[in-house]
Structure formats: C-alpha cells, structure tokens
Amino acid sequence: MRPVNLLPGELRPRSAAGALSGSSYVLVGTLAAILLLVGLYVFTANKVTSRENDTAEALQQTKAAEAKIAALGAYGDFATVAQQRSASVKQLAAGRFDWERLTRELAHVLPSNVWLTEVDASVVPEAAGATAPTGGQPEVTGPSAKLVGCAKHQPDVAKLMVRLRQMHRVNDVQLEESSTSVDGSSSSGSPAGGLTGQGCGRAYSFEVTVVFDETAPVVAPGGGAGGPRVPARLGGGE
Predict the structure, then answer these.
(1) What residue ranges do the domains of the chain occupy?
(2) Residues contacting 229, CB < 8 A, separation 6+
(3) Model's pTM, two decimal places?
(4) Looking at CB atoms within 10 Å, which of 97, 99, 147, 161 has the fewest?
(5) Contact assessment for residue 110 and residue 104, using Cβ atoms and an 8 Å cutoff
(6) Class of residue 211 by CB neighbours under 10 A (exposed 0-12, middle 13-18, buried 19+)
(7) CATH class of 99-234
(8) How far apart are CA 91 and CA 216, in angstroms?
(9) What is the mean pLDDT of residues 162-172?
C-alpha cells in the first residue's frame, strides 16, 4: 500500500533542490567581487596614510634638525674664529724679535773705543732701509740691524764685529763701510766707499749690518744639539 502523508503542506519537511538558478550565482559573485575591492581599497588607503604620516614626521625631524643647526651655528663660528686667532698669535710669537734684548747686548759688546751714532733695525729688511749687499755678501732675508758709529782705531771695528757675532740669534755680521777722513783725504777699509767720517772727526766711521736668524733657535741647557748657551751677561740663563 502506498503511504499517504496526512500533514498539511506548510508543515511538511522540505528537501534541498540541489541546484541554484543562474541569477543566484551572479549575485553571489558580484557580492564577493565588491567585498574584495572594498578590502583592497581599505588596505591601499591605510598604506597611503601610513606613508603620509611617515613623510610628515620626517619633515618635522628635518625642521627640528635645521633649527638645532642654526642655534649651534654661532658656536661653530666662534670655534673657527678662535682657531684663526690662535694661529695668528702663534705666527706672531714665532716671528717676534726681542729688540730690548738687542739693546742690552749692544751695551755689553761695544768696545770702549767704539760708540754708535745710529741704529736702524727691523724684522723686514726693506723697512730698515737696507741696501743691496755688496762685495759678494749674501742677501739679507730675515731680521737685521744696521749699526752706524765711530771707532778710534780700525782694529776696534774688527773687535766689534767679533763681539757682535756672540750675541743671541746672530747669523752673520756684514761690514758695509769703515773709513776715516782727515784734512779732506779719506781712506777706506771696505771696498764700498760712501762714509766720509761724518760726525767722527779723526776717528773711523763704520757701518755694520747684523743679520739675525728668522726664527729663534732652541737653546738647550748646557749647549748641545739645541745650540750654544747664551752668556748670562748677555741676557742668557745661568
């Protein structure tokens, strides 16, 4: 006998048909595509926002660094100026010449029969009014002093030159002229004539150029490699 279902139609269990219509597949695909596009848009927007935030932060850091550099620029300029001034002071100290010591030494080395009428000294030879070297003498390039004076006898001039060589920093002593004039006649002890005994009477009138080292030598205690010790009477150490 065939069974008969007595339940009303709305209460009867329903079974899946096992297939969807074509419009249902299109709807599902469209929704999936829209969801994918929304997700891709959100991901891209978040990435762009992150990049913009990083750029803004980098710009802020750059501005802060520039402001710090501008604030510290004065210190950098001060350091540069300090270095330049220090170099200038060192250069001036290296080229310094102790003229007071020169006058003190001259007072010690002048022989009793010799006196000076003119002393012209300078670190720059041209400023001292130095003339071109004569008689094969080397050109003066460093500090020098021109001494003009009188001596009672010609040997006194030679003695003066020997003593001048003993002074501190002296490199060379050049005799420019040594002559005397008596009753209109003149005799010269140097090949370069020029002085005529003016202001010296019967004594010899001389002109000597003392050439010094351009830089002060290092004087080691007791002499040695640093150079000979300067005598105490000429201003040296004990």
Answers:
(1) 23-94, 99-234
(2) 219, 221, 222, 223, 236, 237
(3) 0.49
(4) 99
(5) no
(6) buried
(7) alpha beta
(8) 13
(9) 89
